[in-house]
Amino acid sequence: MFRTALTASLFLLASAVGLHGQVAGESPSAQDEAESLAREVEAKVAETRGLAYRHPTAVGVSDEADLRDYLGRKIAESLTPQVADAQLRALALIGCYDRDTDIVAATTALLEGQVAGFYEPSEKKLFLVRRGEAAGALAGMDKIIMAHELVHALQDQHFDLEKFYDEVAQDDDMLNARRCLVEGDATWAMLAFGQGLPMTRFLVNQVPDDRAGLLAMLEKVKKMGMGGQMDLGMMGAESLEAAPVLDVDELVFSYYGGARFCLALMKKDDDPKAADLARLDAAFRDPPLSTEQVLHPDKYLGDRDDPMRLELPDLGPVLGDGWTKLAENTFGELRLRSLVRQKGFDRARATRIHSGWDGDRYAVWTKPGEADVLVWASAWDSEKDELDFAAAAVESVLADPAGETGTWSRQGGRRDWQRQAFGLASGLRIGDERGVYLVHQAPAQLREALLNALETGTKWSEIHSTAKDR
Question: Of 175, 174, 182, 187, whose CA–CA distance to 145 is shortest?
Answer without folding.
Answer: 187
